[in-house]
Amino acid sequence: MSTFPEYLRQLDSDELRALVGARPDAFFPTPPSAGSLATRLALPGSASRALRQLTAADLAVLERLADAGAELEPVDATGMGDTSHLRELALVYGPDAQLRVSPGTLSALPPTWRVTDTLPPGAADALQCLPARERKVLQTLAASGGVGTTATAGPDADPDAPVASLLAKGLLVRVNATTVRLPRPVRDAMRGAPPREYPLTQPAAPAVDQAAVDEAAASQGLDAVRQMRQLIVALLEAPVALNKDGSVGVRAEANLDKQLGFPVRLLVTAGESAGLVGRGNVDDQDVLAPTRDALTWLDVRLAEQWAILLTGWLASPWRSDTGAKLLSADMHAPAVRHARATIARHAGRLDSLLFAAPLEAASFSPQLIRATVAEATALGGLAGAAPGLAPSTPLRALLGGGDVVAAADALVPEAVETLIAQGDMTIMAPGPLEPAMASFLERIAELESPGLASVWRVTEPSVRRGLDGGLTAGEIHAWLAAHVLGEVPQAITFLIDDTARGHGAIRAGAALSYVRSDDPALIAAAVERCGLRALAPTVAIADVALPKLVAALRTAGLQPTAEDGAGVALNVAPEPALVPATPSTLPAAPRIAPEQVEAIVAKLRAGEDDAGEGGGDAFETLRAAARARRHVTVGFVDRQGRGRTLTVLPLSVSAGQVDALDEAADRVVRIALPRITKVVLA
């Protein structure tokens, strides 16, 4: 049987090309020889990345091979299951009749982690009423790596002994006559975690109407775009002051939620990642504010806006499901990006996750899965009803590295330019609105019903908001006349005129600043409420700048219009505060161009033969022997500096030490790994 480097040297060009595609991380820079490649493939990081590509069925085959001792010597893998995916990733090598597990493969798995472990029937109830002695045994094993040795593990042991009783209840697994193992599901149940069993066959996927999913996703996605636009406009008008640690205060977040009428947490985290909002210093104050990219985003097409927002969410390093302060260090978790992508790809279905990505899914809490599904649904990434929840076409494109904008373009209906106004003060948009139209409508009306077709209501406060923003009654009438089908209802026209009639009754200007009005009662009210000084019944002055005077008058319940020296209306809104963008990206797996693949293959083909064995060492041999329950002869230096040799059965290898059963002395010995000089199979 050939060694791992010899096996790699025997691969033909096509097999090498396939290996480069499956394990690209091991080929940068190009290894000079097969021995060097073998060493790289055995490295924990590379092996771990390969293992994360395995399904539960693949891992089950790998466990059977380990139990048969395939790490230590060739085994007959006939009947153990499909090994094709394991071969593609170079995690096993050799013919089925003499198959071996590649060096470093199983050492990259979490200790004691097995996909084939299950929680026995009735185990949960049994754990609730365990005698104290049995509970102590389980707690000791859980704290010491999950493997232990005892004289009462044999089939003929006293059935009343704690270990024998636990074996009978299925809470422990017998390794041999003197060794027992605590299964992972039992350990999880002891800790109060929900037991998870990994399906070894692909779960049936629910029937999905992709057209219906995409329709619902587009509606939700465009609503998220509308909310993001409102958030940006609100921050342009009034940036939010940050805490000293750069987080958004609880009260500030609550005020923003109340002002906008929807929770902003998800939009802030996705927007920050997309480069639309950010943190920076404005006027010597740290604030949350829009970026210059946000101004560009406001003007692009709806499909582009949706695609940018969805991409920002997937790449966001923030966990919005925590109770931590918004944008605080406790929310920052870059690892969540990969978890989010995996959960979204499987639409949050736990059975599918546990089969297709068992090593990743093992760490997914129910809270994280629920939160990810909720976020993806809110942004138009997922749609449908469980169990028919499915990724939308734009999310599929995003996860697969495709053109997200093109996918969104295919779903977003043609924007409408004609509105339908009704006598009940409502305006209906029969389709999505381009950003400019939506922005104007948001200035003069309140949204009542969002969606692809939306309904807006014109109210006195909404019209006043538009007038405060610098619009005139004539401009509002002209815009409605240009965009409304047929005549604008008189009720809407009268409301606009009535609101505008009182809106400009009091005038403000720079003296430092002044106010004037033909109505002496309004001047008297302004003097009383804002501390002004009256010069005449129709004129008063202030010692603050015009923008502050206008703001004070509006706070006092008056409706001023700012004017210049010629009496022309002014917009005194402050210049928007903008901060630098800090967009995030999802780390991508290395991609190798075809010409690079050919260069790598050619170099390996031309490389010199070497005698490297690739990745084998004492640690690997000990862990393999423990998994296969094989005896080894260990040479080591004791604490007195004397060389010793023992033949033992390794039980566990962790934390820089090996626990092994010395059957000759009927005791468990503990040897520090740095003291070991050699390990050979007995």
> What number is the mean pLDDT?
86
Please give the domain count.
6
- Helix fraction? 40-55%
- The neighbouring-strand order within the major sheet is 17-18-16-15-19
- Total helices: the number is 29
Uncertain regions: pLDDT < 50 for 5+ in a row?
611-616
What's the β-strand tally?
24
If you compute it from the alpha carbons, what radius of gyration comes out, rounded to the nearest whole angstrom?
35 Å
Largest sheet: 5 strands, mixed
What percent of residues are in strands?
5-15%
Structural class by SSE content: alpha+beta
Shape: elongated
Distance between the termini: 19 Å
What does this structure look like?
The protein is of the alpha+beta class. It has 6 domains: 4-108, no CATH class; 123-190, Arc Repressor Mutant, subunit A, CATH 1.10.10.10; 210-411, no CATH class; 420-485, no CATH class; 505-558, no CATH class; 618-681, SH3 type barrels (Roll), CATH 2.30.30. Helices cover 42% and strands 15% of the residues. The chain contains 29 helices and 24 strands. The strands form 7 sheets. A 5-stranded mixed beta sheet has the order 17-18-16-15-19, with helices on one face. The longest helix is centred in the N-terminal third of the chain and has 28 residues, at 210-237. The radius of gyration is 35 Å and the shape is elongated. The protein starts with a helix and ends with a strand. Residues 611-616 have low confidence and may be disordered.
